[in-house]
C-alpha cells in the first residue's frame, strides 16, 4: 500500500518505519533507498542522539493531564446516576457521546495533519477539554451532561493523533519506547481520575470538578512548549513533491494490508469492549455484588487502572526487544484465564485478578500502534487517529451496550459474558511478521 502523497513532511516517510530494520536485515540498493527517502527522514540528530526525552516526558505529562480531565467523567457516574436519576442506559449514552465523538473525528484529524501538521492544535484540544470540564461542573440537566461529554471528546480527537506523531518524531528510532512513555501518561491520568474523584468530588459534590480546570490549564502550557519544539522540527524539513511518493510502497500487497488492519481493529475491539466493562461499570459491580461504599469502589478502580498504566509502559520496550507480534498475541489472549475466573471469586480475588488483567491487556496498545505505523509508513497521523479513534469508539459502544445489558440482565451477568472477549486474541496468529 502506498503511503500518503501530496505535501507530507519528513516525519511520515517510509524511512522512518524501515530505519531500524537496516541494522538487522541487510538490504541491497540502500543507496537508492536513501536517495528516494532522504528528504522525508526524521532529522538525523533525532536518530543519532536517541529519544528527545524532554519532549517525550512533556507529552507524557500532558497526556496524563488530558486523560485525568477525561477520566473524571466516568468517575462521576455514581454521583450523576443518583443526582440526575439516571439508569444504566443513560450512563452508557454519556460514555457513547464522549467516546463516539472522539472516535469519529480522530481519523479525520489524523488524515488532515498528515498533509498539514498543526503543532499548536495540541493546546487547542486541551482547551476544548477544559471547556467541557467547566460545563460538567455546572450542568443541571441531562442534555448539558451530553454536551460536556461531546466537548471533552472533541478535545481528545484533536489531541491524540498529533501527539502520537510528535512522540514518534521524538523517539530517536525507539518507537515502542516512545509510544509507551506517551501512553503511560494517559493511563496514569485515567487511573488518578477515580482516586481524586473519591477524595475530592465525592465528598464535595459536582461543583468541585471545576478545580480540575487547573490541571487542564497546566496541560495547555506544557503543550504550548511542545508545540513550539514541534514547529521548529517541521521548519527544518523540506516538503516532498507528489511524484516522489512512489518510494513509499509497503512490503505487503494492498489486500494483505487491509486484512491486517482489519485484524488489528478486531483485537482493539476485544481489548476496549472488555475494558469498557471496567472503566464504566467496575465500581457498580463492586457496589452491587459486594456492598462496598462508593469511595472504596473508586480506590479499587484506581488499583485496576494503575495496573493498566504499568502494562502500558512495559508493552512498548518489550515489543522493541522481542517483536510487536508476540506482545500483541500475549497481551490479549493471555488475559483469558484471569477474565474467566473473575466473576466467580470474592472481593479480594476480584481486586487481585484485576491487576494481571489490567497489566497484560494494556501492554497491547503500544505494540499495536507501532505495528500499524510500520505497516502503513507515511501515514502516522491517520494510523494514530484511526486506532485511537476506533479504541474510543469501541469503548463508547461497549459502554452503551453493556449499560443496556446491565439494565436487563444485571451487572453480574455482564461480567460473565464479557469474560470471553479476550479469546478474540486468537486472531493475532494471522498477523504477518513485518521484520
Automatic annotation (TrEMBL):
GO terms for molecular function: transmembrane transporter activity. This is Major facilitator superfamily MFS_1. Signal peptide: none annotated. The lineage of its organism: Bacteria, Pseudomonadati, Pseudomonadota, Alphaproteobacteria, Hyphomicrobiales. SUPFAM superfamilies: MFS general substrate transporter (SSF103473). InterPro entries: MFS, MFS_dom, MFS_trans_sf. Residues 55-435 form the Major facilitator superfamily (MFS) profile domain. GO terms for cellular component: plasma membrane. It comes from the Bacteria. The chain crosses the membrane at residues 142-160, 181-202, 208-231, 252-274, 294-314, 326-345, 351-372, 379-402, 414-431. Residues 25-46 have a biased composition (Polar residues). Residues 1-46 are annotated as: Disordered. Pfam families: MFS_1. Keywords: Membrane, Transmembrane, Transmembrane helix. It comes from Methylorubrum populi (strain ATCC BAA-705 / NCIMB 13946 / BJ001).
Amino acid at each position: 500500500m502506498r503511503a500518503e502523497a501530496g505535501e507530507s513532511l519528513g516525519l511520515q516517510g517510509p524511512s522512518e518505519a524501515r530505519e531500524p530494520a537496516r541494522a538487522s536485515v541487510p538490504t541491497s540498493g540502500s543507496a537508492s533507498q536513501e536517495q528516494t527517502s532522504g528528504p522525508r527522514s526524521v532529522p538525523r540528530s533525532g536518530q543519532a542522539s536517541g529519544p528527545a526525552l524532554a519532549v517525550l516526558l512533556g507529552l507524557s505529562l500532558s497526556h496524563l493531564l488530558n486523560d485525568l480531565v477525561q477520566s473524571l467523567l466516568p468517575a462521576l457516574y455514581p454521583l450523576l446516576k443518583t443526582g440526575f436519576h439516571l439508569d444504566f442506559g443513560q450512563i452508557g449514552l454519556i460514555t457513547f457521546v464522549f467516546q463516539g465523538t472522539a472516535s469519529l473525528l480522530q481519523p479525520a484529524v489524523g488524515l488532515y495533519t498528515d498533509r498539514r501538521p498543526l503543532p499548536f492544535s495540541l493546546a487547542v484540544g486541551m482547551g476544548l477539554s477544559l471547556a467541557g470540564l467547566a460545563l460538567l461542573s455546572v450542568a443541571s440537566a441531562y442534555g448539558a451532561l451530553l454536551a460536556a461529554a461531546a466537548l471533552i471528546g472533541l478535545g481528545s480527537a484533536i489531541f491524540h493523533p498529533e501527539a502520537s506523531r510528535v512522540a514518534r518524531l521524538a523517539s530517536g528510532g525507539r518507537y515502542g519506547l516512545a509510544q509507551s512513555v506517551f501512553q503511560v501518561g494517559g493511563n496514569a491520568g485515567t487511573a488518578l481520575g477515580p482516586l481524586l474523584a473519591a477524595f475530592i468530588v465525592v465528598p464535595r459534590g459536582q461543583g468541585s470538578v471545576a478545580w480540575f480546570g487547573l490541571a487542564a490549564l497546566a496541560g495547555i502550557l506544557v503543550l504550548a512548549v511542545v508545540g513550539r519544539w514541534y514547529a521548529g522540527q517541521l521548519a527544518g524539513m523540506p516538503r516532498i513533491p507528489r511524484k516522489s511518493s512512489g518510494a513509499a510502497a509497503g512490503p505487503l500487497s494492498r489486500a494483505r494490508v487491509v486484512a491486517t488492519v482489519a485484524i488489528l481493529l478486531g483485537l482493539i475491539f476485544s481489548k476496549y469492549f472488555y475494558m469498557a466493562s471496567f472503566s464504566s461499570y467496575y465500581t457498580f459491580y463492586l457496589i452491587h455484588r459486594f456492598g462496598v461504599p462508593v469511595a472504596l469502589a473508586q480506590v479499587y478502580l484506581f488499583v485496576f487502572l494503575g495496573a493498566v498504566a504499568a502494562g502500558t509502559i512495559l508493552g512498548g520496550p518489550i515489543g522493541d526487544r522481542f517483536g510487536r507480534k508476540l506482545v500483541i498475541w500475549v497481551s490479549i489472549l493471555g488475559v483469558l484465564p484471569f477474565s474467566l475466573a473473575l466473576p466467580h471469586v470474592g472481593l479480594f480475588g476480584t481486586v487481585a485478578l484485576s491487576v494481571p488483567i489490567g497489566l497484560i491487556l494494556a501492554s497491547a496498545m503500544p505494540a499495536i500502534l507501532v505495528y500499524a505505523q510500520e505497516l502503513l509508513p507515511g501515514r502516522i497521523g491517520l494510523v494514530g487517529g484511526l486506532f485511537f479513534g476506533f479504541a474510543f469508539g469501541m469503548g463508547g459502544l461497549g459502554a452503551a451496550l453493556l449499560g443496556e445489558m446491565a439494565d436487563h440482565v444485571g451487572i453480574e451477568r455482564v461480567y460473565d459474558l464479557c469474560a470471553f472477549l479476550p479469546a478474540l486474541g486468537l486472531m493475532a496468529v494471522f498477523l504477518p511478521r513485518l521484520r
